[in-house]
Amino acid sequence: MIKQRKIKLWLSSVSLACLLPALSLQAAEKPKLVLQITVDQLRGDIPTAYLNKMGKGGFKYLLNEGVVYKDAHHNHANTETIVGHATLATGALPAVHGMIGNVWYDDKLQRLVYNVEDSKYPLLSANADVNQKTEIDPTQRTAKSSGRSPSNIQVSTFSDELMVASNGKAKVFGVSVKDRGAISMAGHTGKAFWFSKKSGEFVTSRYYYDKYPQWVNDWNAAKPMKKYHQKAWQLSDKQDNYVFGKQDDQAWETKFPGFGRTFPHQYGDMDNAYFNTFLTLSPAGDELTLDFAKAVVNNEQLGKDDITDYLSVSFSSTDYVGHIFGPSSLEAEDNMLRLDRTIANLLKFIDKKVGLDNTLIVLSADHGAAEVPAYLSTLGMKIEVVAPKTWDKTPSMQALKKKFGMDKALIKSYFHPYIYLDRDLIERRKLSLEQVQKAVAMEVAKFDGVALAVTSSDIEQGNTPQDYLHTLVGNNHSKNRSGDVYVVLEPQRFVADMEGLTVAATHGSPWGYDTFVPLIFAGFTINDEVVYDRVSTTDIAVTLSAMLGIKAPSGAQGNILKKVLDD
Ligand SMILES: [Zn+2]
After folding, report:
1. Which of 126, 216, 242, 460 is 20 to 30 A distant from 428 in Cα terms?
2. What is the chain's alpha carbon radius of gyration, rounded to the nearest angstrom?
3. pLDDT tens across 389-412, in order?
């Protein structure tokens, strides 16, 4: 690969007379495409853990040829999918971009809402909404409408700024199995497509189109998922060659009826109600996402002219596999090897279509992952999951009753990590909201597994200590969406009961394993370098903007990562 940056450095280091050609070279040096790859639930250490078993062109290419940040973290407490994606997209903290959780309580609607639901913009496809019976993602089930849009994102994204700077000529696309993984990155001005587990199609909403482009209809009509009909997810290597080769069947893995806990995991018949769900619980979900992303590039002619286009591909399989089998499992290990092949395939395709020299690549993750407590226990760390259902709440309720004359009625909703109080009731009874919050927080802090309970009054009045945990909780605080009390659980501990589905592992804490993500810039003029400084995921959108010479998104708070620009 020709390293254009080296040419530029040489030019700028010679006489002043050479500055003009140097500048003109710089002007032509904009990438034709920005490719933002996000892996859902990829802790920063995972890609290197299996690197020696990976092939060429995927993680090896990115890690060997790119600027690799070894200590990149999200700086918010609620390390969930939409929170992380919106941060990657906007360079803002959740306190500013407003996506404070996959779900929050909407006071006007008097119910929990799903982050990207928007009844104004129904899906373009019939019968592609959330199937309440078979949907395993409990956050999706909170949505009352099938409509989706980015309207809840309160600031601009990098992709929006690219669109603005090009007077709408940039082509901006976001693709993911998850709606929130696609919508967040495409911003307010791009186009987003995601996978409907109900219909087995890539779909979008009326926010983006009045009708599907013909190529999308064609892609869906070809039913690409039928190649998995009656097939199974098999190991890609000999079982003995895996770190977890002897532990295919671990007691804590979720036994999904029909999919099982051991290889081969059968996809079954494509008419089965769970067939599409099984695809998402395996590398097949990422393979389909790749296939659709290629169709976007081909049909929308991305990277073909001098105006920089943007493609976001968010791979979701790692998240589902991590939840169901745990990050330390044979399934997660094989999924990483398969993801590596999927990324290699994507990069090879982009190289052919656009050229990696013309493509600025950035890879990161929306959050990391916790290890399964039972797995840690086998290694000597005695850890248990947290089970709020088993908490003896009677003494706390009695204390609240004694203090305020009420107990349960004060609490409207607890959707971890936020407890929402009934503010109308508190006002009607002329109670002090601040005192009720404090009392509830004090009681919650007594329960097993709770490390900290922080009130919104304390955050808003600046009364919290300036330590690491409180800072991350504060960074997550948006006045109208965050709850009255933020509950932080102890390290390595989490609630495994996801509204009926018991998962092996999850994420969502402010602890290091959840905030730690990979961050790699590669392609274009990037030279390889490893950086050990601690950096923030809010730096990404700011750095991309600086690379493109455009203004940063409206709420961006990160710093320019200079090594990406100057190395
Ligand atoms: Zn997840």
Report:
1. 460
2. 24
3. 899 999 999 999 999 999 999 999
Ligand 1 centre from 137 Cα, in Å?
9
How far does residue 35's CA lie from ligand 1's centre (Å)?
23
81 as an active site residue: the answer is yes
The confidence band for 567, taking pLDDT boundaries of 50, 70 and 90, is low
CA atoms of 488 and 509, how far apart (whole Å): 7
- Give 483's strand partners: none
Ligand 1 centroid–CA 89 distance in Å is 18
Task: Report the pLDDT value the prediction gives residue 289, as an integer from 0 to 100.
Answer: 98
Which H or E run includes 458? helix 456-460
Please indicate whether residue 138 or residue 187 has the higher confidence score (pLDDT).
187
Average pLDDT, rounded, for the chain: 93
Catalytic pick from 38, 48, 79, 81? 81
Take residue 301 and report the two structure tokens written for it.
């002619």
Ion ligand 1 contact residues with beta carbon within 5 A:
319
Peptide bond into 224 cis (omega under 30): no
Q: What angle do CA 76, 81, 87 make, to 5 degrees?
A: 50
Q: Is the dihedral of CA 143, 100, 469, 408 positive or negative?
A: negative
Ligand 1 centre to CA of 308 (Å) is 31
- State in Å: Cα 365 to ligand 1 middle: 11
Peptide bond connecting 553 to the previous residue in cis, omega within 30 degrees of 0: no
Asked if residues 192 and 285 have their Cβ atoms less than 8 Å apart, the reply is: no
- The pLDDT tens digits of the residues spanning 315-329 come to 999 999 999 999 999
**Contact assessment for residue 66 and residue 528, using Cβ atoms and an 8 Å cutoff:** yes
